[in-house]
Amino acid sequence: MELTVKVFKALANQKRLNMLRLLMREGELPVSVISKRLKISFTSASKNLLKLENVGLVKRRENSIWIYYEINRDRKYPYQELLFKFVKK
C-alpha cells in the first residue's frame, strides 16, 4: 500500500490526532503522560502510538523502563509541513 494512504489511515482516528497535537505542543513525552493527559488507557496509547510510529509520524526513544515519543521531523514527506499545519488546528 502506498505510504500516503497508510499515513492518512493512521490519521483517521481522533485519538491519534490528539496524540500528534499533544506532541507538537509539548515535545517528547512518555507514554504514561500521554495516556494520562488524553484520558485513555496506557494500552490504548501504546497501540495508537505504534501505528503513528509505523508510518513515520512519530519516533520513540527507550530509557530503561520508560518509552518516550516525539514528532518525527527526520522523515520527510512531500506534504509534511501541510500535514503538520492541519494537525495543529
How many structural domains are formed by the residues?
A: 1
Q: Count every beta strand, where a strand is a DSSP E run of 2 or more residues.
A: 3
Specify the CATH class. Answer: Mainly Alpha
- Identify the CATH homologous superfamily: Winged helix-like DNA-binding domain superfamily/Winged helix DNA-binding domain
- Backbone structural class: alpha+beta
The largest β sheet comes out as: 3 strands, antiparallel
Strand order of the largest sheet: 1-3-2
The name of the CATH topology is Arc Repressor Mutant, subunit A
Query: If you compute it from the alpha carbons, what radius of gyration comes out, rounded to the nearest whole angstrom?
Result: 12 Å
Strand portion: 15-25%
| Cα end-to-end separation | 28 Å
- What is the correct CATH architecture? Orthogonal Bundle
Structure in words:
The protein has about 90 residues and is α+β, with helices and mostly antiparallel strands. It has one domain: Orthogonal Bundle (Arc Repressor Mutant, subunit A). It has helices spanning about 5-10, 15-25, 30-40, 40-55, 80-89; strands at about 30, 60-65, 65-70. Strands 1-3-2 form a three-stranded antiparallel beta sheet. Helix 3 crosses helix 4 (about 40-55). The N and C termini lie far apart (about 30 Å).
